[in-house]
C-alpha cells in the first residue's frame, strides 16, 4: 500500500484484509461516525467507496446528495421499509463494511436489486469464523434497530477489545512461531548433524571401497600380467614344440626314406639270395639224388656180395655183383 489515500474498494477486490488492518480501519471509521453522531448527525450512505485508506489509517468521506435513496449492499432494512433513519442505520452499514474487510466478500452479495433487498431484509450473513468479530458484526447487522448496538461508543469499546485480543494473539502467535522456529532450527541442526555424520560415513565407506577397488584392480592387473606371461611362455613352448615336431617329422621322413631304400636293397638282396639258395638247393637236391642212387647201388652191391658169400652164386652173378658194387 502507498502513502497516498485510495478508496477502500481498491483493497477489497475479492480479497480480505489482515484482521489487524480491518480492526484498525474500523476504529478510524468508528471515531468519525461517533463525532458525527455526537453532533446529532447521521452519515446515511456509508459504503467502501466513501472510505479513503492509507498506511496511516482510514478517513470517511461525506455522502453525496441523493445517496440516501440509493440501494446498496450496506443499506439498512429500515431504510428499505421507509422508516426513519438514525445513528443505528450507520451502525448497520458499518457492520457490513467491517464484514467485507474481514472476509473479502459482501455480507449481502446479490447483484439483482430485488434479491439484494430480500437478502438485506431476511438473510443472515455467513459467519466470519472469528468469534469476537462474528459477535460484533452480528449485533451491527441485526434486522431490528433495537437489537443492534445503540451507540458507536459501544462499537468502539468492542473494537478496542478485539484489537487488544488480536495483539495478544499476534504476540502469542509470534511467540509460538518463535518457539516453532526454534524447534525447527534445532531439528534442522540435528538433521544437519546427522547428515554430516552420514556424509562422513559415506565418504569413509566410499574411500574404503575405492581402496579395495584399487587393490582389486591391481590384483587383476597383476594376474592379467601373469596370464600374459603364461600365454607367452605357452606360445614359446608351442612354437618350440611345433618346431620340434616339424624337425621330428622331417627326421622321421628321412629315416622312413632311408628305411625304404634299405628295405628295397634288402628285399633285392633277399631275392638274389633266395635265387642263389634255390640254385644251391636244386644242386644239393640233385647231389642228394645222385648220392641216393649211389647208395642204392652200394646196397645192391652189398646185397649181391652177401649172396655170393652165403649162397655161392655162379661166377657171372658174382662178377656182376662186383661190377655193380664197383
Task: Give your account of this protein's structure.
The chain is mainly α. It has a domain at 6-150: Orthogonal Bundle (Transferase(Phosphotransferase), domain 1). The chain has helices at 8-11, 19-38, 77-80, 87-103, 113-122, 131-140, 152-311, 315-325; strands at residues 6-7, 51-54, 57-60. The chain has a three-stranded antiparallel beta sheet with strand order 1-2-3. Strand 2 and strand 3 form a beta hairpin. Helix 2 packs antiparallel against helix 4 (87-103), helix 2 runs antiparallel to helix 7 and helix 6 (131-140) packs across helix 7. The chain starts with 5 loop residues before the first strand and ends with a helix.
Q: Indicate the mean pLDDT.
A: 81
* Total E-strand runs: 3
- List low-pLDDT spans: none
What is the count of DSSP helices, taking H or I runs of 4+ residues?
8
- How are the strands ordered across the major sheet? 1-2-3
- Rg on CA atoms, Å: 74 Å
CATH topology of the domain at 6-150: Transferase(Phosphotransferase), domain 1
CATH architecture of the domain at 6-150: Orthogonal Bundle
Reading off the top of the CATH hierarchy, the class of the domain at 6-150 is best stated as Mainly Alpha
Helix content: over 70%
Taken in chain order, the helices and strands follow as EHHEEHHHHHH
How would you describe the shape? Answer: rod-shaped
Strand content: under 5%
Q: What is the fourth-level CATH superfamily of the domain at 6-150?
A: Transferase(Phosphotransferase) domain 1
The main sheet comes to: 3 strands, antiparallel
CA(first)-CA(last) distance: 182 Å
Which structural class is indicated by helix and strand composition? mainly alpha
Amino acid at each position: 500500500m502507498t502513502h497516498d489515500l485510495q478508496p477502500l474498494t481498491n483493497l477489497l477486490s475479492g480479497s480480505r484484509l489482515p484482521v489487524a488492518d480491518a480492526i484498525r480501519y474500523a476504529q478510524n471509521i468508528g471515531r468519525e461516525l461517533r463525532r458525527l453522531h455526537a453532533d446529532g448527525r447521521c452519515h446515511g450512505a456509508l459504503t467502501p467507496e466513501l472510505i479513503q485508506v492509507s498506511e496511516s489509517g482510514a478517513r470517511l468521506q461525506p455522502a453525496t446528495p441523493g445517496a440516501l435513496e440509493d440501494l446498496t449492499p450496506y443499506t439498512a432494512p429500515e431504510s428499505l421499509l421507509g422508516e426513519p433513519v438514525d445513528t443505528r442505520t450507520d451502525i448497520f452499514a458499518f457492520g457490513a463494511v467491517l464484514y467485507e474487510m474481514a472476509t473479502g466478500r459482501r455480507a449481502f452479495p446479490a447483484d439483482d436489486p430485488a434479491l439484494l433487498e430480500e437478502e438485506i431484509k431476511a438473510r443472515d450473513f455467513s459467519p466470519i469464523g472469528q468469534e469476537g468479530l462474528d459477535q460484533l458484526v452480528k449485533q451491527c447487522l441485526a434486522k431490528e434497530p433495537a437489537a443492534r448496538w445503540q451507540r458507536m461508543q459501544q462499537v468502539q469499546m468492542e473494537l478496542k477489545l478485539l484489537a487488544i485480543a488480536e495483539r495478544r494473539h499476534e504476540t502469542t502467535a509470534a511467540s509460538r512461531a518463535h518457539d516453532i522456529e526454534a524447534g525447527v532450527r534445532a531439528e534442522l541442526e540435528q538433521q544437519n548433524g546427522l547428515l554430516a555424520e552420514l556424509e562422513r560415513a559415506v565418504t569413509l565407506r566410499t574411500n574404503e571401497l575405492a581402496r579395495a577397488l584399487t587393490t582389486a584392480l591391481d590384483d587383476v592387473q597383476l594376474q592379467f600380467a601373469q596370464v600374459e606371461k603364461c600365454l607367452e611362455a605357452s606360445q614359446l613352448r608351442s612354437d618350440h614344440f611345433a618346431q620340434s615336431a616339424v624337425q621330428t617329422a622331417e627326421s622321421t621322413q628321412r629315416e622312413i626314406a632311408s628305411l625304404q631304400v634299405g628295405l628295397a636293397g634288402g628285399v633285392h638282396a633277399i631275392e638274389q639270395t633266395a635265387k642263389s639258395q634255390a640254385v644251391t638247393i636244386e644242386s644239393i637236391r640233385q647231389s642228394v639224388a645222385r648220392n641216393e642212387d649211389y647208395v642204392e647201388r652200394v646196397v645192391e652191391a652189398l646185397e649181391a656180395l652177401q649172396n655170393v658169400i652165403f649162397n655161392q652164386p655162379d661166377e657171372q652173378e658174382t662178377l656182376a655183383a662186383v661190377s655193380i658194387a664197383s
